[in-house]
């Protein structure tokens, strides 16, 4: 799995993830950036033939993302509201 967070000051953050391995990979992409916690996001781009839960426009829980070999996604991170974990 190859992944990184991309963003600029005062702009949305994006998770970019690509499974470069030979098998399924399930990973936790939950992250804290500058004191803000992100545990979910919205898919804005994917590599095409991908599971329905990762179709463009779908909201995903970042703690449980599974990608098949060759799958790639770009997810706009959604800030947690106060009280969310």
Question: What is the compact description of this entry?
Answer:
This protein is an all-beta fold and 85 residues long. It has strands spanning 2-6, 14-18, 25-27, 31-33, 36-46, 59-61, 65-67, 72-79. 0% of the residues lie in helices and 48% in strands.
Describe the structure.
This protein is an all-beta fold and 85 residues long. The protein has one domain (2-79): Immunoglobulin-like. The protein has strands spanning 2-6, 14-18, 25-27, 31-33, 36-46, 59-61, 65-67, 72-79. The strands form two sheets. Strands 1, 2, 4, 5, 6 and 8 form a six-stranded antiparallel beta sheet that branches. Strands 3-7 form a two-stranded antiparallel ribbon. The protein starts with a strand and ends in a 6-residue tail after the last strand. The mean pLDDT is 92.
